[in-house]
Design brief:
With 153 residues, the chain is mostly helical. The chain is built from six helices and two strands. Strands 1-2 form a two-stranded antiparallel sheet. A hairpin with a 2-residue loop joins β1 and β2.
């Protein structure tokens, strides 16, 4: 398993675990009010980057790494301010999962960029004979990959 694949699965695992922790924390484990609180809706915000992360989209990793810092800040504040020990434990779990996701997302975006554009995104326009790739001035060289023809990808 290469570095990019490991970072991809680490980000997926930590994001899904953070969604599940957020729901469990606010609905059952240590809600602010009996019967659950509306803070469970913050899990919806974590669903926004989920599909882009599952598909390995670098742009999603970039903005999600910044958005996760809000959840990190909430975890720090609740670990410091909550009186319930179970709520503090959940906050420390949130901090840990946010750190894992942040590190995975930042390094995934870095190493995926270094790897260049995936060939699967280039193969269809080249084989279909679309004259020019959008935004590429020289069709023979794309993202540092020298393309000699549709059968030579």
């Amino acid at each position: 398993m290469n570095r990019v694949t490991l970072l991809h699965w680490s980000a997926i695992t930590s994001l899904i675990a953070l969604i599940l922790l957020t729901l469990a924390w606010e609905l059952w484990l240590a809600p602010l009010r009996e019967g659950g609180s509306l803070l469970a809706l913050k899990a919806v915000l974590l669903l926004l980057p989920l599909f882009g992360v599952l598909r390995g989209r670098v742009y999603t990793y970039q903005w999600a790494s910044m958005a996760i810092l809000f959840f990190f800040a909430e975890g720090v504040m609740r670990a410091w301010a909550d009186l319930d020990p179970l709520s503090r434990l959940c906050a420390w779990g949130e901090i840990l999962l946010c750190l894992v996701f942040f590190a995975s997302a930042v390094f995934y975006a870095k190493y995926a960029r270094l790897a260049g554009v995936p060939v699967q995104h280039l193969a269809v326009p080249l084989v279909a004979g679309d004259g020019d790739l959008v935004g590429v001035h020289d069709d023979h060289e794309v993202a540092g990959v020298h393309v000699r023809g549709p059968d030579r990808l």
